[in-house]
Amino acid sequence: MKKLLRELSMPEDTCLIVKEETGQEFTAPFHYHQGYEFTYIVKGQGKFYGGDSVMNFKAGDLYLFGPGFPHFFVNDRSLNRQSEHVHSIFVQFHEDFMGREFYQKSEFSQLKDLLNESSRGIKIRDPSNELQEFMMAFPALPALKAVINLLSMLENISSLPDHGINYISSSLYRISTEEKESKDKLERVCKYIMANFKDEVTTRDAAAIVSMNEAAFCRYFKRRTTKTLSQFVNTVRITHAIHLLTVSDIAVSGICFACGFNNLSYFNRQFRTITGNSPLSYRREFNLS
């Protein structure tokens, strides 16, 4: 049985690992790490699931995930022409990559606070050119310069004002022991939803994917995601609607049906519940920003 955990296997004399991945799609399963990870999206767009949230991602996005924070990316295949590939850079490191006493020094208290806050997942809002250059430089850097680069990134991000950081998960989100011991059930369900949200998604089909009866599945899914299946699917659909509202001029009625809703009034209600705005107001405010 494939485990949910992706281990960070580092030689004892290695401070960090840099990975660069390209391909037709993001292939990492729903997973988490025992250490910390910066993820930078060089190319690609689609849906991102992390903790208890679903959001759109695009090229230029920068994330910091703490130990145990579950996440995965699903690129939008409908926008992925044969000549277009996804491209991402990951930097993984343990908390003690500079020694166990490093964060005990008062000079580094901001870095310690940042890493503690990453347990909810962090998305850097509009990362500066400097931060993006830091990430792009990692694959070619020798070991010592990579460590210096990492410290520079951490210092830069820890000094950002509050509005420069978005927490991915809600303040109620907690990483549970069960989550760390879980297998790949949630991964399979999430992939089913991400692949089928534009069509009908049923509890019966989702439960069948993980060989559970519907009642047990509903309890399991709510416990793991803090949402019912219907709430989760609607969140994915509204997340896709936000993407279409901001990158296209498709009419709201067209977006409603393109996202899997079959009733415009219900779509408008769900959009307002999740975003606090109507679709038209959201598009208007985005265009003015």
Automatic annotation (TrEMBL):
The record's keywords, sorted A to Z, are: DNA-binding, Transcription, Transcription regulation
Q: Which Pfam families match?
A: Cupin_2, HTH_18
In its keyword annotation, does this UniProt entry include Repressor? no
Which molecular function terms from Gene Ontology are attached?
Answer: DNA-binding transcription factor activity; sequence-specific DNA binding
Say yes or no: keyword DNA-binding present: yes
Question: What domain of life does the UniProt record list for this protein's source?
Answer: Bacteria
Record the organism.
Pedobacter antarcticus 4BY
The identity of this protein, by name, is HTH araC/xylS-type domain-containing protein
InterPro entries referenced in this protein's UniProt entry, alphabetically? Cupin_2 (IPR013096), Homeodomain-like_sf (IPR009057), HTH_AraC (IPR018060), HTH_AraC-typ_CS (IPR018062), RmlC-like_jellyroll (IPR014710), RmlC_Cupin_sf (IPR011051)
Q: Where is the HTH araC/xylS-type domain?
A: 187-285
Lineage here is: Bacteria, Pseudomonadati, Bacteroidota, Sphingobacteriia, Sphingobacteriales
- List the PANTHER family: ARAC-FAMILY TRANSCRIPTIONAL REGULATOR, HTH-TYPE TRANSCRIPTIONAL REGULATOR EXSA
